[in-house]
From TrEMBL:
Keywords: Cell membrane, Membrane, Transmembrane, Transmembrane helix, Transport. Residues 69-278 form the ABC transmembrane type-1 domain. CDD domains: TM_PBP2. The keyword Cell membrane applies. This is Sugar ABC transporter permease. It comes from the Bacteria. It is a multi-pass membrane protein. The chain crosses the membrane at residues 12-37, 64-91, 103-123, 158-181, 202-228, 263-282. The keyword Transmembrane helix applies. It is found in: Cell membrane. Its main location: membrane.
Length: 288
């Protein structure tokens, strides 16, 4: 049992790392808050003084603000549905004994380690190009007209690209959860005459509930700040401008760091609202 002296020594040893971590988080956040109340134009005069809540009002009353929030939530929701559904199916498939199982698992997980910019470039040029892309040749093979993916189906394209990146993560977490399932339960249900769908609905899916909520929580936190894929492919056109990309555009177009900082605060608020909502769901599942 730890003594008071050992606990104090542990706190002292952890203190430098905790202080560094807090500084890493709090200093940028504090600077963002300070700049959000200023008119700061680095290319046109620098710091022009305090403007109060003017930046917040300008940003939230912009005609592009709420569509950007809606686009962000649609992309997050679409990616979550695809990664969870196909993640469960892939995890169940990879759990089955097969030849070269380790290699297959490695190939399935590999896309998660590809940088978002590289992934977006690959999809844009190799798959979705309406002239030389793989999907264009596939459409022509069946006698159909190639699709202008990034203009005619822009939201679908973004969701596909991001889902391809995050599907391995969901699959890995869900595969680990499936492997922890007691096989005797499935064998007993099978001996009792339970059909595959019944076994999935009453045994496998409830067992995966915690893993699914963890996947949803972690992915949502990262997906709310999606930027690279949109910058490389559509550059916010055709209804794909997310809140993060809107902040980038506002700073780039107006060269107003204060306005962008106010947008960053709104992004933090949105992320916290979603995170609190998801944490309640995770908490319920973990207590179940």
């Amino acid at each position: 049992m730890a003594t008071q002296h050992s606990r104090s020594a542990a706190r002292i040893m952890m203190a430098p790392a905790v202080i560094l971590l807090l500084g890493w988080m709090l200093i940028p956040l504090t600077m963002t808050l300070v700049f959000s109340f200023k008119k700061y134009l680095p290319m046109r005069g620098g710091d022009l003084g305090w403007v109060g809540f003017e930046n917040y009002v300008r940003f939230v009353t912009s005609s592009a603000f709420w569509p950007a929030v809606g686009t962000t939530l649609v992309i997050v929701g679409g990616v979550l549905v695809i990664t969870v559904v196909f993640g469960v199916l892939l995890a169940m498939l990879l759990d089955q004994p097969m030849w070269g199982q380790g290699i297959v698992r490695l190939l399935v997980i590999a896309p998660f380690f590809v940088m978002p910019t590289v992934s977006a470039l690959v999809w844009k040029n190799m798959f979705m190009d309406p002239v030389n892309g793989l999907l264009a040749h596939l459409w022509k093979f069946f006698g159909a007209q190639p699709v202008e993916w990034l203009s005619d189906a822009s939201m679908t394209s973004i969701i596909m690209i991001v889902s391809w990146q995050w599907l391995p993560f969901a699959t890995l977490i869900l595969l680990t959860a499936i492997q922890s399932l007691d096989s005797e339960q499935l064998e007993a249900a099978e001996m009792d005459g339970a059909k595959p769908l019944s076994r999935f609905g009453y045994i496998i899916l409830p067992h995966l509930a915690r893993a699914i909520t963890i996947v949803v929580l972690i992915q949502t936190i990262f997906l709310l700040s999606i930027f690279a894929e949109i910058f490389v492919t559509t550059q916010g056109s055709f209804g794909t401008r997310t809140l993060t990309y809107l902040i980038f555009q506002r700073v780039l177009e107006s060269q107003n760091v204060g306005l962008g900082s106010a947008g960053g605060v709104y992004a933090i608020i949105l992320a916290n609202i979603v995170a609190i909502f998801l944490m309640r769901i995770v908490g319920k599942n973990l207590d179940a």
